Amino acid sequence: MARILLIGGHGKVALLLSPLLVEAGHHVTSVFRNPAHEEEVAATGATPLVADVEGFDLGQFTNLVSGNDVVVWSAGAGGGDPQRTWAVDRDAAIRSIEAAEAAGVPRYVMVSYFGAGADHGVDPEDAFFAYAEAKAAADERLRTSGLDWTILAPSALTLDEPTGRIDADAEQGESVSRADVAAVIAATVDDATTVRRTISFNAGQTPIAEAIRG
């Protein structure tokens, strides 16, 4: 059993993820911003924790992650406001990585997106640009950390039913269900072969455990 801190616990993927982690025997603390969501998060089996990580400094973040075995970053500003995107998807994400290092949390799983990176190719005039830049910076900071990291990069998210199967070899992003993304995260937490790897994936035909195995 691992103690898992799930940041962004009220997100659509996270609400599907928490029950999978709990069912696998892990203790999940689910962090989210809005107190009104506490009951919904608690219903997943996770321990709800209301905290607005956007404003956390390194010391506060270190206290937050301390005592856990795994940090899963599934938070995001949700687009729209570039300044908030920088604050959450880049700055807070990077502070969480540095906090995990400071607190001695060994494992970190980052939810990114298919095509993330310095060569993302998004036009600076595009509304998606701030997010693309923020994720590129956070992912790169994680890769240079001393943590046992995994970056998961799903393609466009859908509300389709889970299939339990993905394609982790595709060169171009297509789409994948949020439910299958949740299953990929849960499988990644328990698979040491995923450490220090970036796994990009679409919906596909290969069972998840097989598709992510290194």
The number of distinct helices, counting runs of at least 4 residues, comes to 7
pLDDT < 50 runs, ≥5 residues: none
Provide the succession of SSEs. EHEHEHEHEHEEEEHEEH
What gross morphology would you assign?
A: globular
Oligomeric composition of the shown chains: single chain
What is the percentage of strand-forming residues? Answer: 15-25%
Please give the largest β-sheet.
9 strands, mixed
Structural class: alpha/beta
Trace the largest sheet across and list its strands. Answer: 3-2-1-4-5-6-10-8-11
Radius of gyration: 16 Å
Task: Describe the model.
With 214 residues, the chain is of the alpha/beta class. It has seven helices and eleven strands. It has helices at 12-23, 38-42, 58-65, 82-103, 129-143, 178-189, 208-212, and strands at residues 3-7, 27-32, 47-50, 70-73, 107-111, 148-154, 156-158, 165-167, 175-177, 197-203, 206-207. Helix 1 packs across helix 6 (178-189), helix 3 crosses helix 4 and helix 4 runs parallel beside helix 5 (129-143). The chain is globular and about 40 Å long. 46% of the residues are buried.
